Amino acid sequence: MVYNEPRQLNKTVNFIKEAEKVKLKLECEIKAHQLGQGKDGTISQLESFYQDIELMIRGKIHIPSYPRTIADSGDLIVNLENNY
Hints:
The chain has helices at 5-34, 43-59, 68-72, 75-83. By secondary structure, it is mainly alpha-helical.
């Protein structure tokens, strides 16, 4: 279906823009943790999220999965979105 290609490209571009924003937020939170001022998650969790986002941007077929404890506590991502 040729008529869907531009729309798909648009979705990809939008995803990459949003993913880059999340990467910046994660970088800020990692730096805050290194200074002893981090609020959300642990450095290893944040670095894992960052790596997953990198893989999704580059490969476009990476589907991250997380342990139930992280997946059930969605407040980490919500806090990252609200704090910045």
